[in-house]
Specification:
Elements (H helix, E strand, L loop, with lengths): L11 E4 L2 E8 L5 E5 L5 E7 L4 E3 L7 E2 L7 H9 L4
Antiparallel strand pairs: 1-2, 2-3, 3-4, 4-5, 4-6
Length: 83
């Protein structure tokens, strides 16, 4: 097991094999991410001790481009990870 990496909103992380932009960091260290530039989606992610993984129970994501609070992160996502 390794320590949870320090992350900040707007940074890119990999959740499994999915490249994601961190949108919000929860008090417990979990985070909300946006991914899929062709159909921006937001979803919760958590650190499992080794890697980031999507939170499964009851969280299947939403349409990130419909939430004004996520607009900056959707823009970052659409620019691409290496822009």
């Amino acid at each position: 097991m390794s320590d949870r990496p320090k992350i900040n909103p707007g940074e890119w992380i990999s959740v499994g094999s999915t490249s994601c932009v961190v949108a919000n960091i929860r008090d417990n260290g979990d985070c909300e991410v946006v991914f899929n530039s062709s159909k921006p989606t937001n979803r919760e992610a958590q650190w499992n001790g080794d890697t980031w993984e999507f939170v499964e129970p009851g969280d299947y994501g939403g349409y990130a481009d419909k939430y004004h609070r996520l607009s900056l992160y959707v823009q970052i996502l659409k620019r691409g990870r290496y822009a």
